[in-house]
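Entry 14. Structure prediction run on the chain below.
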Amino acid sequence: MKIVHVVEPFASGIAAFVQSIVQNLRDDYHIVIHGEREYVMRSKEVIKYFPDDNVQFIRWRSAQRSISVVKDTVALVELCRLLQKLKAQKMVDAVHLHSSKSGFLGRLACRLMNITNVIYTPNGAPFLLSNINAVNLFYKLFEKLGSSFGGKVVCSSQSEQDAYRKLGIKALNINNGIAVDTSHYIPEEAPSVSGKFRIVTCARIVQQKNPILFNAIAAHFRDFEQFEFIWVGDGEDRHLLTAPNITITGWLPQSDALALINSAHLYLSTSQYEGLSFSVLEALSLRKTVLLKNCIGNRDIVKKGLNGDLFSIAQEAIVKIFQYYNNPAMLRVMGEYSGWLCHKEFNVDTTCLGYRNLYQRV
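Output returned:
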């Protein structure tokens, strides 16, 4: 099959999701139409992690993050032209749209180009923010209008699917998944309880990931030298991470990021909403205990008391961190359960088989 992916932004977890599909559906040919946010991650740094024998990349030059009637109209026209050209070359068997901006413009473009075999994966839609306000209402209307253009909505977690169904939008669910093996798990590099207690997160530093909450949690431990916090990644809100015990690494090569997660005692996520975080799944595969903000996408990953815990406010997270620090044996047991859970419920083979079957049906 010839599968066209439309991606904006082409970075972080969304890029990892597309890469996993391309990597695991090697008998199909993939065309990735992508935007670029250079301040987040240059596309050439993302592309190098893709295989070179079954994928082609096309730059979607007018795609951008902010909502603008004029700029989005330009982006829509460009996308229509790209899809029209590919369709004329018989290079479109299915179109897979990734994230909300691609999902809206992509479904409208496919409707205009009379392309009906369309899949849209939100990977964490903005209307999933917990607070109710005018912006949230706008995003809900945005999603409802997009669904009227056609295509199948495929969520990456059960809780995300439930949120779409409550909105009155039909949605399927295929869990995100990663390759589960021991290639990155090196026991001798795992943390020692005699050193600093290392707490790691890996994400863009943006509002969705809630750096203010991460900073508040870390700030509580500023006078405890045995604790350190590391944020792997970068973003427009890095200025909000002011606690002296937080290290911001910037974007790292994938192997270095995995090594840092592997060196952690605990993986912490303060996200306001998720689809199903690839970074958290990486932590599971590396047998880490996870402490996650109770939100859509995160709550699908935690089996309370078995591989970690959920929290709602900073104080709850702080109490849990002290409990983990004082119970290293419990951390190890929870970490082993994380590895088992990842293999059972979030395996990339199952994920890609689900999408391959869906590509054939749409």
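Residues 89 and 130 are 44 Å apart (CA to CA).
Filed with the rest of this week's runs.
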